[in-house]
Amino acid sequence: MKISQILDKVDDNQLFVPAFQREYVWKRKDAKKLFESLLDEFPTGSLLTWETSQPPELKGGVQHNSSMGAIKLILDGQQRITTLYMIIRGKFPPYYNEEEIENDVRNLHIEVEKKELCFYKRRTMQDNPLWVKLSDIFNNKIRFRDVRDALESAGNIVSRDRSNTIEDNFVDIKKVSEQEFLEQAVPVKATLSEAINIFYKVNASGIRLTEAELALAQICGYWPKARKIL
User: Fold this and answer.
1) How far apart are CA 55 and CA 65, in angstroms?
2) H-helix or E-strand containing 10?
3) pLDDT (tens digit, 0 to 9) for every residue of the chain, 230 residues total?
4) Strand partners, 28
5) Are 96 and 103 in contact (CB under 8 A)?
6) What is the CA radius of gyration of the chain?
7) Sequence-separated (6 or more) residues with CB below 8 Å from residue 13
């Protein structure tokens, strides 16, 4: 499934995160490494989903009802999807609010001539049109010609080769949203217990959950308020 399709499904209430999953725990360095890998077109893992008409409690306060039918849940890949949602959309995903995000990665910037990534630094970026916020590129708030015009207005000579490099980099950046995450699906017939057990097993990679976090995920699958209470 393309990254753009995943984010659209989140916005359209077609893709959810179960409440038994831990919160967003990635650091800014993790977000930067993910986007670097995507720019380089390196593998970034798969997405594990589960489609069910009897889901556990969902993050974000959404209440499932029978009129919604079967919905799809993210069992593995939530940290990556949340990261990409913040960087590409420039806002928090609907299943989180601002207080729940400890590390806000929305201000990841890119130097559009060298494709160097860095989180916002006022001294470095304030008066340098080459440094652009990634979400502004994805949302067409800043285009290639805006950077070129700003450089020329500041007295810089923008040769044809330099102009082409910057334009090509804009294209490469926007192509990130068209990259695909391999989607693996838990069988529809799986029970909640089986889905949680699969979630437990796949979290042997990535930023590994502690035994306490895995135990809490098991508990929250049956007692949704456990995470907040404990």
Assistant:
1) 10
2) helix 3-11
3) 999 999 999 999 899 999 888 889 999 999 999 999 999 999 998 899 999 988 888 998 788 888 888 899 999 999 999 999 999 999 999 999 888 999 999 999 999 999 999 999 999 999 999 999 999 999 999 999 999 999 999 999 999 999 999 999 999 999 999 999 999 988 888 888 888 787 777 765 544 556 565 566 556 656 666 656 66
4) none
5) no
6) 20
7) 62, 94
